[in-house]
Amino acid sequence: MAKQKGYLVFDIGTGNARVAVVTAGGEVTAIEREDIEYVTDTLYPDSCYFSPEVLWRQISGMAKRAIANSPDITLIGITSTSQRQGIVLINRDGRAFLGLPNIDNRGREWEDKIDVKEEVYRRTGRLPSALFSALKLFGLKERQPALWKEVHQMTSISDWVTFELSGILSYEPSQAAETLLFDVKKNAWSEELCSIFGFSSSILPSLVRSGTVVGMLTFKKADVFGLSERVPVIAGGGDTQLAIKSAHAQPGDIIIVSGTTTPITKVTGEAHADSEMKAWLNCHTEEGQWLIETNPGITGLNYQKLKAIFYPNEPYSVMEREIASLSNDNACVSALGSYLSTEKNALTKGGFVFDAPLSQELTRAHFVRAALQEIAFSIKWNFDMLTEVSPFSLDYVRACGGGFQSEALTQFLANLLQKKIYKRKGFSQASAMGAAMICNGALGVKEERPNDTKVIEPETDQTDLFLYEEWKHTQSLFSHFQPSSKTEVMA
């Protein structure tokens, strides 16, 4: 029996790193996962970093295991995708010495020093904040000048992986758009933006489009992975963009990607920034296409943490069953993030609101359901904001990402949006599947994926919309610290 052609895909998320072997047809034949080791940086509030050396050892080990577990696959290419806004810094010796993830907010103290915010938005499609790479670098330069002097170049986490594999440093545009140093309309680095932040453009590598063969796997790395032949290393892109690609989205579609955060995006063929600065404008991995995005911030990561607290030894299926058994009420309402704010990653107070004294009916399932509903509510809020910026009349939205493995979340969302939800086969591994599609295009491999799509219809019951209004009221309680007749548990 002839072996199938496939790809090795590195996928560096926020919470964990994954390495998968994916066939040219999009089937994941092996996947390995490990949590990323972050180190708290005490020099800045709300800051952390990772060691590229440690992460490389982790993902190299995962790659070897994934390859060993796919003996019937002939690898014909390697690519990578990763969290957006994360970067890796490289010294003059070509050694990656510091990783700053998207959850690192070391630049927050200096946000107000950027006094040309509208000009930054006009060029980048986003307001300057600690979420984006330029402010991370700015904080490093201000507080750790000796470390800053070591910085020779920077790149995204996914492009760092291709650098380690091929020895060739580059930056892919969908990732470059997250730096605040990239003109999203021109698809080019901007000397003017570099000047605003006080950086030399020499720290920025050459841009290489997604789906381009960057180089060949080095002999050394081929030996590490146990491969007898060198294979092409292909530029990937942001995990959101590759997930969207897997959904076969076309201009005019709205796609919701449920992961650590939940981007709500609309594909467009025009690079027009929002005049009211409510939405981001992103580069897509598809040439000539952009993404208009709103994003509630941390969503899935909150849910994972609550599972670890309330269901440490049970699978998600147990949570789903217990949630499904609850009556449709608002016995518990959550406020676990600044979802109604345009500022992402902002520190805030949060918790749960429920009737006091405690009801005997209140269970652990009420708390996790409240968090799951909040994800849906925050998507609804940001969906409405997106459709104000860019009107939308289709009767469906596309959905992908691991969060939509929850049938409860999917139904909540269909009810709130009053839209059909389309989930294409393989939606839970959307970034890996999009990566395989990128590789197919780069290498001229023709593979047809079956159009196997599940449709979730909205229910006519308006209860979820009523609960949405209650949730919005709860957010105001935490935002303004107003007294309430209900007990507030602060997290």
List keywords for this structure.
single chain, 491 residues, alpha+beta, disordered C terminus, 15 helices, 33% helix, Nucleotidyltransferase, domain 5
Polypeptide structure, described:
By secondary structure, the chain is an alpha+beta fold. The chain folds into 2 domains: 4-240, ATPase, nucleotide binding domain (Nucleotidyltransferase, domain 5), CATH 3.30.420; 247-424 and 460-491, 2-Layer Sandwich (Nucleotidyltransferase, domain 5), CATH 3.30.420. It is 33% helix and 23% strand. It has a 7-stranded mixed beta sheet with strand order 16-17-15-14-20-21-22, sandwiched between helices. Strand 10 (182-183) and strand 11 form a beta hairpin. The radius of gyration is 22 Å and the shape is globular. 49% of the residues are buried. The model is unreliable at 481-491 (pLDDT under 50).
Topology:
Layout lengths: L3 E9 L3 E8 L4 E8 L3 E2 L7 E2 L2 H17 L4 E10 L4 E4 L5 E5 L16 H8 L8 H11 L1 H4 L4 E4 H10 L6 H4 L5 E2 L4 E2 L1 H7 L15 E4 L2 H6 L7 E7 H8 L7 E4 L6 E5 L11 E4 L6 E5 L5 H11 L5 H9 L7 E4 L15 E4 L9 H26 L6 E5 L6 H11 L2 E5 L5 H14 L9 E4 L6 H18 L6 E4 L1
Parallel strand pairs: 1-6, 6-13, 14-20, 20-21
Antiparallel strand pairs: 1-2, 2-3, 4-5, 7-8, 7-9, 10-11, 12-13, 14-15, 15-17, 16-17, 18-19, 19-23, 21-22
Helix pairs in contact: 9-14, 10-12, 12-13
